[in-house]
Hints:
- By secondary structure, this protein is α/β, with parallel strands linked by helices.
- It has two domains: 72-307, Type I PLP-dependent aspartate aminotransferase-like (Major domain) (Aspartate Aminotransferase, domain 2), CATH 3.40.640.10; 309-347 and 365-422, Alpha-Beta Complex (Aspartate Aminotransferase, domain 1).
- It has 13 helices and 13 strands.
- It has helices at 3-17, 60-63, 72-84, 93-105, 118-133, 175-184, 210-222, 276-281, 292-307, 310-332, 357-368, 387-406, 416-419; strands spanning 39-43, 46-49, 54-57, 111-115, 137-141, 167-170, 189-194, 226-230, 253-256, 267-271, 336-339, 346-349, 371-372.
- The strands form three sheets. It has a seven-stranded mixed sheet with strand order 4-10-9-8-7-5-6, with helices on both faces. Strands 1-2-3-13 form a four-stranded mixed sheet.
- Helix 3 runs antiparallel to helix 9, helix 10 runs parallel beside helix 12 (387-406) and helix 11 (357-368) crosses helix 12.
- The two termini are 41 Å apart.
- Mean pLDDT is 94; it is low at 410-422.
- It binds 4'-deoxy-4'-aminopyridoxal-5'-phosphate (PMP).
- 4'-deoxy-4'-aminopyridoxal-5'-phosphate is lined by residues 62, 117-119, 122, 145-147, 195, 230, 232-233, 257.
- 4'-deoxy-4'-aminopyridoxal-5'-phosphate binds at residues 62, 117-119, 122, 145-147, 195, 230, 232-233, 257.
Amino acid sequence: MDRLAKKNEWFARAEKVIPGGMYGHQSVKYLTEDFPLYFAKAKGTYLWDVDGSQYIDYVCGYGTNLFGYGNEQIERAAALQLQNIDTATGPSAVMVELAEALTRQVSHADWAMFCKNGSDATSMAMVISRAYRGKRKVLVARGTYHGASPWNVPYTTGITKEDRAHVVYFEYNDIESLDAAVKSVDGDVAAIYATPLRHEVLFDQFFPSVEYAHACRRLADEQEALLVVDEVRTGLRLSRDCSWSDWGVHPDLSCWGKAIGGGYAIAAVLGSDKAREAATNIFVTGSYWLSAVPMAAAIETLRLVRETDYLEHTKRLADKLRAGIAEQAERHGFELKQTGPSVMPQMLFAGDDELVSRGRAWASEVVKSGAYLHPWHNMFFTASHTDEDIARTLEATEAAFGALKQKSVALNRLDILDTVQR
Ligand code: PMP
């Protein structure tokens, strides 16, 4: 049986027992048939699908590791912890140690609370913000992803207007728009949410101006509201601190997930003393939120963050891939926009149609040659990527540009565009 037939067989089995066979942005229905769906193994930079095909991965679990899959030091720390205690009647000592490590690492943070996913963290930050001064409105940049909770998920099916009743939208990186949003609910602002950069699917990424970051801080202060910086995607990828702290803008709350657990399920809200009482007064929990193994993995991840050159290494390799692909695209006569930080690259073809047909056709060719690039979601580098990975990937992208010139780009509708609120 060929690869596609095998994949279809898996999908047919899945469809019987999993609605749609798969859900969320990880669903392959948003990609092309050349992309694998179910995986069997992940190690370092590599993924293997259920058929044994190997890929150099640039999606990296959508950012869930900084040091590659199954990093030995992180795995050792997790395994040691597992010998003693993981999920139990109450928290373990590592919870305190991890909170200490995070508050040492992140300059604005005086305390930490833990949960499982980024959506838990951004929702917890909302509750803390409302508890802070008893205000209701949460200001969010239009189209910004803060998770899949009803107050923010970019789909409307199954969601009511009331789920978002107190969410007020403004335009990202637009101080006037933010100012107007604040004025429209003057006196009732609980929080201003911010992502360190604009990193939405299907759009070019960009950093906001430094003035915008400062305006978020100033307006939050004027309203006695909390500034919440959502680092779930960016956390520890651009900086060893909060991303905006390098600009002198310190949030009151920051949300973390993905990379902090080194592949293990853990997320966190970090807060400054100002928000401590509010955080003490709310009720939040989850059966697995206090699990010790992910906390031990996170402590080891933070040690690697402090003691290795992972940031510099990933940037060097990411710059190399970016330069290589830029040269190839130009030589083959394509205008490929590579935006955002090179370690979290977004690659979109200029003038591509709404369905990103050209991008999907190109990524499809790349994945057939063994490198997993995403056609419309930003990607992620890890410290386990090597010069050899980059060289092999550049061979795949070179072949893909060549194939793209030959290929007529006719692909199925991209379902995501039917329902995403743009
Ligand atoms: N905030 C941001 C900025 C994110 O990128 C994500 C996930 N992509 C989330 C929140 C939600 O995280 P999770 O999927 O772990 O719930």
